[in-house]
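Before relying on records like the one below, remember that each one covers exactly one chain. Contacts with other chains, cofactors or solvent are not represented anywhere in the record.
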Amino acid sequence: MTVPCWLLRLGTMDYHEAWELQRRAVAARVAGEIPDILILVEHPHVYTLGRSGHAENVLLDEARLRTMGVQLFWVDRGGDVTYHGPGQLVGYPIIHLTRLGKDTHQHLRRIEETIIRGLADFEIEGHRDPRYTGVWVESDKIAAIGVRVSHWVTSHGFALNVSTDLSYFANIIPCGIHQRGVTSLTKLLKRPVSREQAEAALLRHFGEVFEVELDDGEAASQWLTRQEQEVN
């Protein structure tokens, strides 16, 4: 049996602003004020380091990053350093895990499964690596995953490289993993792939895997508007 899950498409949003929105959503979900939410967003250039991150995995200093127009944040998700930027589909599932068995590892596997099924729609064979969280195509990572769980409500999530400028990954050791590459849908297919095409593929399978009915209707829009008004 499926349950409701709001779908919020934020377009392009500053990382810190989206992070604050996640915190508000988690608090509201813990309090039972809202259903589960899937946030879809694209960020300007930013590197984020998780709780187990190592500063040395960012290969440029902050002054150099500023001249490049790249932000840097230490954040409260798991994992090491990753990159977000234009051409990437970022998803933040705010999911109450009580319904799904209170299993953080299974939550990670569900995110991976959603992406693997979405890639299959493009006739790309994605796979897991038992040593590393994420989704891989051969030896290259196409989707990074890092989450936080508080009171059994999840936040943070995944970043799927669609038409991402992969050169930005050269400034970090992605997820702290040496000698592994990164790839994107556009690179693999050797043709342009739009964010909308990737989003449609992911959404087709998110509901199946997480057993939810996605809803981007008036209630979700009104809640988002209230959050924006409170911040401003």
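The domain at 3-227 is CATH 3.30.930.10 (BirA Bifunctional Protein; domain 2).
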